Amino acid sequence: MSKSRTPSIKMVADRAGVSVATVSNVLNGKPTVSPDFARRVNDAVRELGYVVDLGASRLRSRKTQLVGVVVPDLTNPMFASFVSTLEHLARLDDYDLVVVSARNNAEEEADRLRKIRAWRPAGLIVIPCDGAFAERLPNGFFAPVVLADRIPDAAGFDLIAVDNGPAAGAIAAHLDEQGYRDCMVVGSSLSISNVRERWEGVQAAVRRMHVEMLEIGIDDANGAQRLEERLRRRPLPGALFSLDHGTTLLTYRAMAEIGLSVPGDLAFASFDDMEWMQLVAPGITAVRQPIEEMAEQAWALLLRRMTGSAGKPVTRRLRCAVEIRGSTPRSPLEEAGNMKLGGEKWKLQDEPYSPE
Amino acid sequence: MSKSRTPSIKMVADRAGVSVATVSNVLNGKPTVSPDFARRVNDAVRELGYVVDLGASRLRSRKTQLVGVVVPDLTNPMFASFVSTLEHLARLDDYDLVVVSARNNAEEEADRLRKIRAWRPAGLIVIPCDGAFAERLPNGFFAPVVLADRIPDAAGFDLIAVDNGPAAGAIAAHLDEQGYRDCMVVGSSLSISNVRERWEGVQAAVRRMHVEMLEIGIDDANGAQRLEERLRRRPLPGALFSLDHGTTLLTYRAMAEIGLSVPGDLAFASFDDMEWMQLVAPGITAVRQPIEEMAEQAWALLLRRMTGSAGKPVTRRLRCAVEIRGSTPRSPLEEAGNMKLGGEKWKLQDEPYSPE
DNA sequence: AGCTTACAATAAAACGTTTCACCAGAATTT
DNA sequence: AAATTCTGGTGAAACGTTTTATTGTAAGCT
Hints:
DNA-binding, alpha/beta, disordered C terminus, 6-stranded parallel β-sheet, 6-stranded mixed β-sheet, homodimer
């Protein structure tokens, strides 16, 4: 039996009785091609089930339809959704994606960047681990790079992110207005730009409320320990504001474990709105990031660069939405204040929160 | 200014003062290489920041470190987690992943399969949209294929899945034992093999409980409508068992919207355990799939094939875990039965519905 | 009829690798 | 000392494309 390999352009040419160049011309829709020959080529392609070898194609043409995507963690639903949207958009423009996860590790990120370079992608979309991204980019990297979600220390990249500061500030202001007097803010690490921006936004927005920050790291047992200890200590803060998805999950679970009730024992709000946050009772007040739109913008920016547009790097910020739910009701402390002015006492006991 | 392009092996050779063949030998760890020359080559590589062009490399060597991954939907956290684990394992073996989503659409899946073929991957890992996968695989596809999670109609592939039937059966038996007399089973579509297996497992496991199946499709407004109508009709079933992640989300949300309480109005259980299911109160009884282990097995199977192992296709089934939580308590009906032996009457009135 | 233009198709070079056949010299055997 | 085997290294071919330059032919112009 014949050593039949996956068909090459040469086999197509032979079967169609034309030259390889003609086959290539037909396949790439070059104008100078007679209908008759085109038909013969197309027939041969169909009969053989020929599919172009993109590796060889890129090698010669120096054009590739491949872009690399690097995210800190694929299991994070935010990033998964980001990649998913990206994948869809890329396909519409006939690009493919090589996706890698840096596992929240700067070294791995650097390693993956180097590796991905070996595919000679036409561009890169990266959600960097931390601010020192520029140092990790291989020096001789020519393809355009778009950064998303997190801001690097060094300038020089197209950038798409959300308005972390104002959005976090809105939550803080909300808690403030609801009458909470002190709020603990929890986040993974201030070395991540968006967490830092959120914290700064909180500080800028509060008026009467006192805030304190607690960093618990990423997958850091030590940090989780510190958080738990704080939650067991008294007095509790009136409110808790968690600044990123991982931290929210950890915190919410810890509160449940310790037996703290939301909002009975403390109010709770989160940056990053997950679907379960409207399924639990009471729902959790959260900032919802326009993650699909972020992916869209990232793709648009990259596409612009890949198709040759020059010019200064641009930075775009997207507006977040704030979802107020039952986990941040009017503070009982404040209610107590109002009651003196004739509030109805039973309300306090019957409905510890206002579910909306 | 010189037209400096990304460095090639030739530039490395020139700088090191050796032949291209020698550079290649050094880089690929060929044994016949003097330490002196190796050092010179490595120096040149470092100075130039040379990274091999994997496209060209594959073209000549006919070996590639690329595998394609096709999933029905990247936003589904199950699949996201699957891909994430896969990505990690692949990296350990120095493979890269091209990831595409078929968006729950057989046509798109076929399209993506054709497209991914153009990269000449060393193998494919696919979670197929439906049973007719074999027909969609391009005919001249030579790379090994491992299917996961869902079973195709046609045999001939390595296969890794979970024990859908027994696991779903365990839930059904649990509901039965808890005293529920009728249970509505909801799933996206019986054309998806694992949903079908789960439904069959339910039917095989029930003893006294009556079960009925409701298919609501995937992203099908019509199906959602039918579900909602059913939930508004009386009498309600004693229990609801949802057979896949998407359906669970939809159902749980619908119940909340309609104002049904779990387990007050009906018991609820789910195939697929999401993290929020232990965060809501009461927690939701669910089947937990070993999704990471599934990815591990898929990778192991594929790796075996890619490294040349022949032999008949194998099928492996993994054991699911069943998490019993508060959403499936002892049936009030059964409690009522017990009451005749001295139960407390008021309990019956607390439950508003009377099945049958 | 001659001369240029335009057109359709092709041969051959090039892309960056790996591999294969080969070679010079050193080391070993006869 | 001559003949053989190793050893470390190289030139050139090959992989499957695209592109450039080139060809042959038909059409358009005096």
